[in-house]
Amino acid sequence: MALMRIAVAAVILLDIGIRSTDLEAHYSNMGVLPLHVLYQYCWNPYQLSLHAISGLWQVQAILFLLEAAGAVALLVGYHTRLATLVTWVLLVSVQNRNPLIGQGGDDLLRMLLFWALFLPWGRFYSRDARRLGPPEKVTYFSAATVAYIVQIALVYWCTALLKSAPEWRTEGTAIYYALSLDQVLMPGGRLLYPYASLLQGLTFATYYTELLLPFLLFIPFRVTWWRLLFVGVMYAFHLGISLTLFVGLFFLINMASVLGLLPPVAMNWLDRNLHTGAQRWRPWATEQLARVRPHLRRLQLPLRLSVEHNLPLTEGRRFLLRNVRNAAVAVVLGYVVWWNLDSVNNPSLYMSQPLRWFGYLFRVDQHWGMFAPAVFKDDGWYILDGTTTAGQHLDLYRDGQPVTYAKPASVMALHKNDRWRKYSENYLFVSNEYMRPYYCNYLLRIWHENPTHPPLRRLEVVYMKEISLPNYQVPKPTREVLCICEPEQPAKPNLNSAPDSAQ
């Protein structure tokens, strides 16, 4: 669990770093989703977001810094439970602020933090461990550990059960269609794409890995070897995904999530090697500390922080609190299992709308429909066709180069990061038509903020649609104009109109 804590904190810091490059674009009123649009079209009344208290990017920056501070505290294990709570609250907050850029990995990341609120994942490899000393035992069992393991299994079971299309279950063409999507195609995928038989085998291997492998987590004998097998296969599985498809942090989140399943034999090996490494750098660290200690004393900085200890709980109160906590976690776990069963369309277990408020409020709502029920086939690429006042056509997607309708060498490279790729995917849906003018006007504004750019009198967001066809057929792209916007022109005075007082 300690190893998972470190990995999850590192992924959150990476997520913050990626998101922070788009503070204005994704989280401010000057971006693609102003607060009034969020409230009108995307808001769930049961969801809360500190990031929605202001449309200023400066306020967003402060909240991002607070989340980063919580993640750093979580990484080093400093007041771990409080750091977990702060990080979870701010992670949920930023996800609620812009649902148009979310992906399946975000659901798993916040669920890991939620269950970790009830887990002692700060008892090793942490500042808390140095303060509290070694625990009485290194194994731990509670309702939260069961919830964590069940949650990992649900991710893969549900994504397999939701893959109901023939291309997954009978035809074996799902990986072929996935690698036909130029917007997510990585170099590794290009190497595999020409081999139809291999792609068919990988399709069935993917489906049955997701469907059957989680059962290994519940085999009661030879647990060590089954856990090692599960973690090893999952790492190979997600590493393969990362080399073939552009999925952002999805593969890292999944790889971090299974570290808590490592058995004692793996952790004992890691401890021995970490201890050996510590032996090598400890003399150097001691020498450096000896050098700075006089300076710290001169500045009157304490080397140790005093910690106030709470009065010890009686054994009876501790037993009562532990059982209340386990009961609460068990109820939430049952709710989460019910939610997931409903997501795979089991009519006998249907969860009515009034019961969903709890899931939305605490963000334990989840849906694992990755490439399900079928692979998305509306492939293509964007052209941001800006017309200058001189009549030239420039592509803002390619830094103002002349517009060309030739397919780019790498469609994936057009996207700044996976958040923008997900936004561009949602931009296509007719149900999200409301978001199109805001993106178009945002592009116009940032273009005109650069004085070296020629002024535009018109911008068209064009999608070159290229439907993925079977058997390596190459369709002819069709040009679809999704949005047209023009910069506001100052109103010309009407010299023939009457004075205001007479109108």
Automatic annotation (TrEMBL):
<feature type="transmembrane region" description="Helical">
    <location>
        <begin position="205"/>
        <end position="223"/>
    </location>
</feature>
<feature type="transmembrane region" description="Helical">
    <location>
        <begin position="108"/>
        <end position="126"/>
    </location>
</feature>
<keyword id="KW-1133">Transmembrane helix</keyword>
<dbReference type="InterPro" id="IPR011020">
    <property type="entry name" value="HTTM-like"/>
</dbReference>
<dbReference type="InterPro" id="IPR052964">
    <property type="entry name" value="Sporulation_signal_mat"/>
</dbReference>
<feature type="transmembrane region" description="Helical">
    <location>
        <begin position="138"/>
        <end position="162"/>
    </location>
</feature>
<keyword id="KW-0472">Membrane</keyword>
<protein>
    <recommendedName>
        <fullName>HTTM-like domain-containing protein</fullName>
    </recommendedName>
</protein>
<dbReference type="GO" id="GO:0012505">
    <property type="term" value="C:endomembrane system"/>
</dbReference>
<feature type="transmembrane region" description="Helical">
    <location>
        <begin position="235"/>
        <end position="262"/>
    </location>
</feature>
<keyword id="KW-0812">Transmembrane</keyword>
<feature type="domain" description="HTTM-like">
    <location>
        <begin position="1"/>
        <end position="266"/>
    </location>
</feature>
